[in-house]
Amino acid sequence: MGAREVLAEWGVTECRTIDERALTEITLGASILATGGGGDPEIGLLWAKNVIREGNEILLVDPDVIPDDAMATIAGCLGAALVLTEKPPNGQEIFWCYDRLRRYMGRPIQAVIPPEAGGVNTPVPMAVAGAVGVPVIDADGMGRAFPELQMTSFYIHGVSPAPTAAADEKGHVTIADSEDALLVERVIRGAAMAYGGISWIAGYPMSGRDLRRVSILRSVSLAWELGRRILEARRAHHDPVAETLAVTGGFDAFRGKIVDIHREFGAEKTKGFSLGQITLDGIDRDRGRKATIRFQNEWLIFEIDGDVRCMPPDLICILDPATGEPIRTDVVRYGYRGAVLVIPAHERMRTDKGVATFGPRYFGYDRDYVPVEELMAG
Prior knowledge:
The chain is of the alpha+beta class. Helix content is about 35%, strand content about 25%.
């Protein structure tokens, strides 16, 4: 059975076919929304394009059409992004996860939903959906990227990550099944460390009814529109920063040159995360000012001259002002010039439980969450 047969069983006739051009646009848009994390987009993009070249269809469907009792799960990777660049997958890891998860739960998986907006964790679920013959849902669990498994709109609105399966390139598979979401994160994080710093995962089983209630709806379409407009801006020599702001409703917060980087990654000390801080000297309109951005896989805390201008769950993105290409935490280098954009998080991420789960205090910063709109107005 393929994805079209699944949709026929659901009585669904409308879907969007994702071709190679669409994959390029979606991956670029998701990489921008990934807030400096999400891994090397070439890995997910090439994987998904290869699935299409092998004759498979990737079908994107609106979350409103999935039946209430149909089961969807996430598919993606977890670990340090820099390790992923050095330790790419063999292409079978998530299929092993899906096979083990189906047998463990005793029921079929009928749809795939991306766990986050990311250069890997948006196209890879599409590749998996195309390869196994199920649709991919136009939604995700963050509307951005975050480093830990429980840091999702799914969890904060009542859907457990368990059971989640994790696999490495050698066929080792770990299943974590507990009512304690933080324990599931620790087990899967431990598996990633045992596997060499990165693992490939499938989990967060949820019904269609729950998916609509807890997800960041139509976020793939948002990434698609963003990527399309950035690529059009490049061809027409328009301003990609302006296009990004128009799509996301964000703020052009700072223009600077990176003058210092401190980074730790992949070790036991950092628990498999890429940690650090960058410093930027202002250029052009911001000459004479200084900014710092702290990160844990993703950009987290942004300050200008000591004043905080953005904190999680709101988004911090650094773009090459000429091309709109995102500058990620795993590739940032001394001397890079970037436009720092800050973007409000989706309202489903700004709940009290959301702030407790992935707000500044969870990451160890002694600050209460203040929405980016207020910080920028100040």
